[in-house]
TrEMBL record:
It comes from the Eukaryota. Transmembrane segments: none annotated. This is RING-type domain-containing protein. Keywords: Coiled coil, Metal-binding, Zinc, Zinc-finger. The keyword Translocase does not apply. The gene is LOC139353135. InterPro entries: Znf_RING, Znf_RING/FYVE/PHD. Residues 11-65 form a coiled coil. PROSITE patterns: ZF_RING_2 (PS50089). It comes from Drosophila suzukii (Spotted-wing drosophila fruit fly).
Protein backbone atom coordinates (compact mmCIF):
# COMPACT_ATOMS: atom_id res chain seq x y z
CA UNK A 1 0.00 0.00 0.00
CA UNK A 2 1.21 3.39 -0.94
CA UNK A 3 1.75 6.07 1.59
CA UNK A 4 -0.89 8.23 -0.13
CA UNK A 5 -3.53 5.49 0.15
CA UNK A 6 -2.81 4.97 3.82
CA UNK A 7 -3.17 8.66 4.45
CA UNK A 8 -6.49 8.71 2.48
CA UNK A 9 -7.85 5.77 4.46
CA UNK A 10 -6.83 7.31 7.76
CA UNK A 11 -8.50 10.54 6.76
CA UNK A 12 -11.78 8.76 5.91
CA UNK A 13 -11.73 6.85 9.17
CA UNK A 14 -11.09 10.05 11.05
CA UNK A 15 -14.08 11.70 9.40
CA UNK A 16 -16.28 8.72 10.20
CA UNK A 17 -15.07 8.77 13.76
CA UNK A 18 -15.84 12.50 13.97
CA UNK A 19 -19.35 11.94 12.64
CA UNK A 20 -19.93 9.19 15.19
CA UNK A 21 -18.68 11.47 17.94
CA UNK A 22 -21.00 14.28 16.86
CA UNK A 23 -24.00 11.93 16.79
CA UNK A 24 -23.07 10.74 20.27
CA UNK A 25 -22.77 14.32 21.47
CA UNK A 26 -26.18 15.21 20.03
CA UNK A 27 -27.71 12.24 21.82
CA UNK A 28 -26.05 13.29 25.08
CA UNK A 29 -27.34 16.82 24.61
CA UNK A 30 -30.88 15.53 24.02
CA UNK A 31 -30.66 13.42 27.15
CA UNK A 32 -29.52 16.39 29.20
CA UNK A 33 -32.36 18.53 27.83
CA UNK A 34 -34.86 15.78 28.64
CA UNK A 35 -33.50 15.55 32.17
CA UNK A 36 -33.78 19.32 32.64
CA UNK A 37 -37.34 19.20 31.37
CA UNK A 38 -38.17 16.40 33.80
CA UNK A 39 -36.68 18.30 36.74
CA UNK A 40 -38.66 21.42 35.80
CA UNK A 41 -41.86 19.39 35.59
CA UNK A 42 -41.17 17.76 38.93
CA UNK A 43 -40.59 21.17 40.51
CA UNK A 44 -43.83 22.43 39.05
CA UNK A 45 -45.72 19.45 40.46
CA UNK A 46 -44.14 20.04 43.87
CA UNK A 47 -45.12 23.71 43.75
CA UNK A 48 -48.70 22.89 42.78
CA UNK A 49 -48.88 20.34 45.56
CA UNK A 50 -47.60 22.87 48.08
CA UNK A 51 -50.12 25.47 46.90
CA UNK A 52 -52.98 22.99 47.11
CA UNK A 53 -51.94 21.99 50.65
CA UNK A 54 -51.79 25.64 51.64
CA UNK A 55 -55.25 26.22 50.20
CA UNK A 56 -56.64 23.20 52.00
CA UNK A 57 -55.19 24.48 55.26
CA UNK A 58 -56.81 27.88 54.69
CA UNK A 59 -60.14 26.25 53.88
CA UNK A 60 -59.96 24.15 57.03
CA UNK A 61 -59.40 27.30 59.10
CA UNK A 62 -62.32 29.04 57.38
CA UNK A 63 -64.54 26.02 58.02
CA UNK A 64 -63.58 26.11 61.68
CA UNK A 65 -64.38 29.84 61.86
CA UNK A 66 -67.66 29.47 59.99
CA UNK A 67 -68.96 26.45 61.87
CA UNK A 68 -69.94 28.19 65.12
CA UNK A 69 -71.57 30.97 63.10
CA UNK A 70 -73.58 28.50 61.00
CA UNK A 71 -74.52 26.54 64.12
CA UNK A 72 -75.75 29.70 65.79
CA UNK A 73 -77.78 30.66 62.71
CA UNK A 74 -79.29 27.18 62.57
CA UNK A 75 -80.20 27.32 66.24
CA UNK A 76 -81.89 30.67 65.88
CA UNK A 77 -83.79 29.54 62.77
CA UNK A 78 -84.93 26.38 64.54
CA UNK A 79 -86.09 28.43 67.50
CA UNK A 80 -88.05 30.75 65.20
CA UNK A 81 -89.58 27.79 63.39
CA UNK A 82 -90.52 26.23 66.72
CA UNK A 83 -92.18 29.48 67.78
CA UNK A 84 -94.16 29.71 64.55
CA UNK A 85 -95.24 26.09 64.83
CA UNK A 86 -96.20 26.62 68.46
CA UNK A 87 -98.08 29.79 67.52
CA UNK A 88 -100.23 27.72 65.23
CA UNK A 89 -101.04 25.17 67.90
CA UNK A 90 -103.02 25.30 71.09
CA UNK A 91 -100.93 25.49 74.26
CA UNK A 92 -103.18 23.01 76.01
CA UNK A 93 -104.10 20.28 73.54
CA UNK A 94 -101.28 20.90 71.02
CA UNK A 95 -103.81 20.74 68.20
CA UNK A 96 -103.87 23.16 65.28
CA UNK A 97 -106.50 25.87 65.35
CA UNK A 98 -109.54 25.40 63.20
CA UNK A 99 -112.13 28.01 62.42
CA UNK A 100 -115.05 25.71 63.27
CA UNK A 101 -114.02 23.22 65.93
CA UNK A 102 -110.96 24.73 67.62
CA UNK A 103 -111.12 28.48 67.28
CA UNK A 104 -108.26 30.76 68.23
CA UNK A 105 -108.88 32.81 71.31
CA UNK A 106 -106.63 35.55 72.63
CA UNK A 107 -106.15 36.87 76.14
CA UNK A 108 -105.23 40.44 77.11
CA UNK A 109 -101.57 39.48 77.34
CA UNK A 110 -101.61 38.48 73.67
CA UNK A 111 -101.29 34.74 74.18
CA UNK A 112 -103.42 32.57 71.95
CA UNK A 113 -105.21 29.33 72.84
CA UNK A 114 -107.96 27.09 71.60
CA UNK A 115 -111.21 28.74 72.71
CA UNK A 116 -112.67 25.78 74.59
CA UNK A 117 -109.32 24.89 76.16
CA UNK A 118 -108.68 28.36 77.62
CA UNK A 119 -112.33 28.58 78.68
CA UNK A 120 -112.07 25.34 80.63
CA UNK A 121 -108.79 26.51 82.15
CA UNK A 122 -110.09 29.92 83.26
CA UNK A 123 -113.01 28.36 85.12
CA UNK A 124 -110.48 27.21 87.70
CA UNK A 125 -107.65 29.74 87.20
CA UNK A 126 -107.32 33.50 87.17
CA UNK A 127 -104.30 34.04 84.93
CA UNK A 128 -102.69 33.24 81.60
CA UNK A 129 -101.02 29.82 81.80
CA UNK A 130 -98.04 31.10 79.82
CA UNK A 131 -97.19 34.48 81.36
CA UNK A 132 -99.37 34.59 84.52
CA UNK A 133 -101.02 37.85 83.44
CA UNK A 134 -104.38 38.13 85.24
CA UNK A 135 -107.19 36.73 83.10
CA UNK A 136 -110.85 35.90 83.54
CA UNK A 137 -113.43 34.28 81.28
CA UNK A 138 -114.52 37.70 79.98
CA UNK A 139 -111.02 38.35 78.68
CA UNK A 140 -111.26 35.54 76.14
CA UNK A 141 -111.50 37.15 72.75
CA UNK A 142 -112.26 35.27 69.56
CA UNK A 143 -113.00 38.16 67.23
CA UNK A 144 -110.14 38.29 64.77
CA UNK A 145 -109.58 40.96 62.24
CA UNK A 146 -109.59 38.25 59.65
CA UNK A 147 -109.26 34.58 60.29
CA UNK A 148 -106.76 33.05 57.93
CA UNK A 149 -105.97 29.49 58.78
CA UNK A 150 -102.42 28.16 58.93
CA UNK A 151 -100.78 31.55 58.78
CA UNK A 152 -98.56 32.14 61.78
CA UNK A 153 -97.58 35.62 60.56
CA UNK A 154 -101.23 36.65 60.43
CA UNK A 155 -101.76 35.13 63.85
CA UNK A 156 -99.00 37.26 65.23
CA UNK A 157 -100.42 40.37 63.56
CA UNK A 158 -103.84 39.58 64.86
CA UNK A 159 -102.55 38.89 68.34
CA UNK A 160 -100.61 42.19 68.45
CA UNK A 161 -103.55 44.08 67.03
CA UNK A 162 -106.02 42.58 69.48
CA UNK A 163 -103.71 42.95 72.48
CA UNK A 164 -103.25 46.64 71.65
CA UNK A 165 -106.99 47.21 71.36
CA UNK A 166 -107.66 45.29 74.55
CA UNK A 167 -105.08 47.32 76.41
CA UNK A 168 -106.91 50.47 75.31
CA UNK A 169 -109.90 49.16 77.19
CA UNK A 170 -111.57 47.69 74.16
CA UNK A 171 -113.53 44.61 75.15
CA UNK A 172 -115.31 42.08 73.14
CA UNK A 173 -117.75 39.73 74.70
CA UNK A 174 -116.71 36.22 73.71
CA UNK A 175 -119.27 34.75 71.40
CA UNK A 176 -121.25 31.89 72.79
CA UNK A 177 -120.85 32.82 76.46
ZN1 LIG B 1 -106.75 23.31 72.58
ZN1 LIG C 1 -100.14 35.33 78.57
Amino acid sequence: MEKKDISKMLKRELILELHKQRAENDKQEELIQAKIHLITLRNQVQEEKRKSEELQEKLAIQDKDLKPFIDRENQSLLAKLEKITEGNKCYFCKLKFQSETHRRAILKCGHVFGEMCIHTYLILHKNCPICDFPAVLWDICTRWRKLSENSAADDKDNATHMAARLQQGYRIRPTGY
